[in-house]
Amino acid sequence: MNQDRLSFVSNGHRLEGTLRLPDRGVPAPCVVLCHGFGSYDDDIGGFIRMADFLAESGLASFRFSFSGSHPYPDKGTIRPASQWVSDALAAVARVGQESGVEPTRIGLLGISVGGGVVVQAAALSRDVRCVVALAPVADGAAWLEHRWSLTRGKAAWQQFVADVEADHRAVVLGQPSRRVRHFDVQALPDETSWNALLARFPQALGELTLESVWDTLSFKPAFYAHAITQPLCLIHGDADDSVPVEHSRRIHERAAGAKVLHLLRGAPHCPWQTPFEPQVQRLALEWFQQWLA
């Protein structure tokens, strides 16, 4: 297996990831893989398999952990709106300096919040050739409100937002942000299943700061979609109970360049280790082969 660990710096944060190269001996197009909310570089194994799948077809990939994620000392302080887009573009700049990568043929693939990140990053950079967004979050506040409304109700959501705002006021006075359970941030429905997931993948965030939630509430990739001129492929399951399909539709309607929206009948939010994973891999590969060639 042809892969290396790389480090790079984004706004003062030292980050790291894995570059997976195909066995072809010449510079290859590369896909930068961007994980979801509370996840890490391998995205519970899905990005390892995606990297292998891309390599078999002659494409390189670079999967890394966003700032505030595992394995960094500031784990639990994620900032999708104010930091993650910069992280993604720094990853593009870093991987483009590798001899095994063709620097003018770099694409982005992201899932969930990472899907929103790649949309916003592409709108801000000419170094990104094309994009695949899997179940992207178009609006952080709307996403979290949807989750809370499903499981805990509007009143509980309003109280949670009030707690986040109070915490932010304390932070700007120099106090540390309070840490809360990731389970509660997303208002997840099944604590037993969540605990089992954490036991299986301890790299995922078990807790995070309320300041991380504050930042997520201002995450608005849909506002940038009109500035995307690169080819954009959106893939979304119509049985997604985490991020409604409307998030992909909003981005698709506003995107200015070549675009396609694939709605997968019966597919959940996360395709990894489901019958839909091969289909997602194939659709992503076809888009990258078309636009990174």
Structure characteristics:
about 40% helix, 10 helices, Rossmann fold, eight-stranded mixed sheet, two-stranded antiparallel ribbon, 10 strands, alpha/beta
Task: Give the arrangement of secondary structure elements.
Layout: E1 3-10, E2 13-20, E3 28-34, H1 46-56, E4 60-64, H2 80-95, E5 101-111, H3 113-124, E6 131-134, H4 140-151, H5 154-171, E7 179-181, H6 182-185, H7 191-200, E8 207-209, H8 210-217, E9 232-237, H9 246-254, E10 259-264, H10 277-291
Parallel strand pairs: 3-4, 3-5, 5-6, 6-9, 9-10
Antiparallel strand pairs: 1-2, 2-4, 7-8
Helix pairs in contact: 2-3, 5-8
Describe this protein's structure:
The chain has helices at 46-56, 80-95, 113-124, 140-151, 154-171, 182-185, 191-200, 210-217, 246-254, 277-291; strands spanning 3-10, 13-20, 28-34, 60-64, 101-111, 131-134, 179-181, 207-209, 232-237, 259-264. It is α/β, with parallel strands linked by helices and 293 residues long. The chain has an eight-stranded mixed beta sheet with strand order 1-2-4-3-5-6-9-10, with helices on both faces. A two-stranded antiparallel sheet has the order 7-8. β9 (232-237), α9 and β10 (259-264) form a beta-alpha-beta unit. The model has no long low-confidence stretch (mean pLDDT 97).
